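Suppose you are handed a protein chain with no further information: no name, no annotation, nothing but its sequence. What can you learn? This example shows the usual starting point.
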Amino acid sequence: MYFTFIITLCTAFSLHAQDLEKSLLWKISGNGLTETSYLYGTIHMTCDASLDANVKSALDETQLLVLEIDMDDPSMQASMMKGIYMKDNTTLKDLVTNDEYVLISKFIKKQMGMPLEALATMKPFFLTAMFYPKLLGCPVQSYEEALMKVAHEQGEEVLGLETVEEQLNVFDEIPYKDQAIDLLRSAKDELAYDKESFDKLMPYYNSKDIEGMITMMEEDKNLSTSKHIHKILNNRNKNWISKISDHAKKQPTFFGVGAAHLAGDSGVIKRLIKAGYTVNAVL
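A reasonable first move is to predict its three-dimensional structure. Written in structure tokens, the prediction is:
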């Protein structure tokens, strides 16, 4: 899902007092759990979403797959379409100057082959997200789809930590003008900066350096939406802890969320530890 990739790329901002080990897979135990659950950091768009042996073993040991949203829900696409548009009849023309609108229009026409008028009521975040598959230079693969494939083969249910509506509502809380600033930047350099950032991010992910991802993003001052990190990342992480706890107490569960949610003092790992769980890297 390309929309959630934007969230991953733009929400890895957090202060961290102690570095975590280089791992994408974490074991959750203690605090009354009778069986182990696992937490896995994904990236929502990649060239190769192959699952390693540790991840496959963790999937074998668990009985439920929980992602950020329930991507198995047949109504997901319909819910997504309802939530990607701006409210109050706002259009992109309300957010940028006439010259900026013309620039963005030419950019979208070149990249997507369609007129901006057909897309101008979409939240700018999602207009930007439409271009991200172009950054890969390869057919897009998804870790979420790879995880769901295993869950289906094992006859397991797939659930979500939040609804599509809850996830998309975040982008109503972030000013549309701030979202438009990032879209305009992408249009001005025709994704050059976005590609540079993505090319820097992937080595951190591939080396399982979740703290390195955080540091890289902290140093990126070009995302206007970063000032809303508490809405994009921290609040969601906080809301997930009770849901992770509920699922893990009922059955051993495999949780797959964007890797940017794992590290930092406001990240899921340290929040789980604060809640009384033992969370260990699977190396």
